[in-house]
Write a structure and sequence with these properties.
The protein starts with a helix and ends with a strand. It has a domain at 39-109 and 129-141: Vaccinia Virus protein VP39 (Rossmann fold), CATH 3.40.50. The protein has helices spanning 3-16, 24-37, 51-62, 74-87, 100-103, 123-130, 153-161; strands spanning 41-45, 66-71, 93-97, 111-116, 134-143, 167-169, 177-181. It has a seven-stranded mixed beta sheet, with helices on both faces. The protein has seven helices and seven strands; from the N terminus they run ααβαβαβαβαβαββ. The chain is of the alpha/beta class.
Length: 182
């Protein structure tokens, strides 16, 4: 199986079915960041049809890393499990179906790379919860911060109130990420 064609078809399916996936440009940027960071234990919140998860897993597989990913939708979760098998990345993925706000506190591991792409109005809550789940030298990436800025008011206030240093990086034509590094 050609993984590039599989990913292209997965992306195309997402576009045709209005499934919100990260862009290919964003996927490549984040894969490069994972590689540079040499991430070993990644957490992903919100994964749609798992296009991003497979991208991340392919990179993590090369550096003996693993990923835990949380998805609220049961349909998306079930589809993801099949896609992971097809892409040959199942062994390094811990896929969890549930509400990330309930799941994150129960996670017993520490993460060195976190990607937050869940419900935008809950971004602040996700960030609050994961700050206790990261280890020294971590990176947290929050997606869609330009396009959905209005839905993320509490997130921006949280950054300001807690004096959290961050960078906004406009990766896509109409969107970008926030990167917090410690």
């Amino acid at each position: 199986m050609n993984i590039d064609i599989f990913l292209q078809n997965l992306k195309k399916h997402g576009i045709e079915n209005e499934i919100p996936n990260i862009s290919e440009v964003n996927a490549i940027f984040l894969r490069d960041l994972i590689k540079i960071k040499k991430a070993k234990n990644m957490l992903e919140i919100g994964t749609a049809n798992w296009y991003s998860t497979i991208h991340f897993a392919l990179e993590l597989k090369n550096i003996w890393g693993k990923i835990t990913t949380i998805e609220f939708s049961k349909l998306s979760y079930d589809t993801a499990l099949e896609n992971f098998k097809i892409a040959w990345v199942s062994p390094i993925i811990n896929a969890i179906n549930g509400n990330a706000l309930d799941v994150i506190p129960s996670l017993g591991e520490k993460y060195d790379f976190v990607f937050i792409d869940g419900m935008k109005r809950r971004t602040k809550d996700f960030l609050e919860l994961v700050r206790n789940k990261v280890e020294e030298g971590w990176i947290i990436i929050i997606d869609d911060v330009i396009k959905f800025r209005e839905k993320m008011i509490w997130f921006w206030e949280y950054l300001e109130d807690n004096k959290i240093k961050y960078n906004t990086i406009p990766i896509d034509i109409d969107d970008g990420i926030v990167m917090i590094v410690k």
